[in-house]
Amino acid sequence: MSNQADIPSSRIRRLQLQPGQRAFVVGDIHGTFGLVDEALDLVEFRPEQDLLLSVGDLIDRGAESARVAEFLQRPYVHAIIGNHEEILLRAHATAQPDLKLLTLMIESYGGEWWLRITRDAQQRVLQALRALPTLIELATPTGLVGIVHADIPPGMNWQTFVMAIERGHPRTLATALQSRTRPSQGLTQHVPLIDRLYAGHTVHKRPRVLGNIGFIDTGAVFHAPPGNSDYHLTLVDALSPLQCLEAPPLIDRGRVRVYG
Ligand SMILES: [Mn+2]
């Protein structure tokens, strides 16, 4: 069997944590980049050494969505694509924007910000988003970590999933970006051939562990008044066991919580 790591793919980003390096995973940001910076301060993040992984959905709804291009330029940030990025890119797949998709994104996905930025800024955002992979695989001293936006088809192992995503298999891509099967049905089976995974997409009031997947979209963008103060931004130490997500946070600043 060939070694999958030998096959170059833009849909999978494979990273290796170096000794002394730390890695954190952040839940769905949706334009709350100020909260991300607050979280990084709380863990005394070292931009020169540490990694920040994002489960996707960096844009829409939140006031700072336009900061996404700057955020993705930071060398320590490794993000995957979420369904919000995907629809924006799909709307701009050709020179003429798909107005139907664009309208959907603006009216139903919280994409009003898109109309308020200059054409140059729009181009910078599109360029940054086009470079995003669909999955991240991070080798750490405490096991192999996967990052996916929404879900993995229940019953499928990680290697099969990675191969299907690399091939661009449409239904598997759709599951990765927008399925809610596992959280909505509370499925607890483990994904074989990977130690632990982090996903976002489905909002919970606190992180939720199902099998070996930690669901960490805790609705950061819904926190702000008149929102619900149960919601917050989750940052988790990628080296810690997933069970840390079920314990009280290490640091709790209300709208920003750190698990590890
Ligand atoms: Mn999503």
Short précis:
The protein is an alpha/beta fold.
3D architecture notes:
The chain has 9 helices and 12 strands. It is an alpha/beta fold. It has one domain (4-259): Metallo-dependent phosphatases (Purple Acid Phosphatase, chain A, domain 2), CATH 3.60.21. The protein has a 6-stranded mixed sheet with strand order 1-5-6-7-9-8. Helix 3 (83-91) runs antiparallel to helix 4. The radius of gyration is 17 Å and the shape is globular. The protein binds manganese (II) ion. Manganese (II) ion (MN) binds at residues 57, 82-84, 149, 201. Manganese (II) ion is lined by residues 57, 82-84, 149, 201.
Outline the secondary-structure elements:
Elements: E1 12-16, E2 23-26, H1 33-42, E3 51-54, H2 68-73, E4 77-79, H3 83-91, H4 99-108, H5 113-116, H6 119-130, E5 135-140, E6 143-147, H7 158-167, H8 170-178, H9 181-185, E7 196-199, E8 208-210, E9 213-215, E10 233-237, E11 251-252, E12 256-259
Parallel strand pairs: 1-5, 2-3, 3-4, 6-7, 7-9, 10-12
Antiparallel strand pairs: 2-10, 5-6, 8-9, 11-12
The protein binds manganese (II) ion.
Manganese (II) ion (MN) binds next to helix 3.
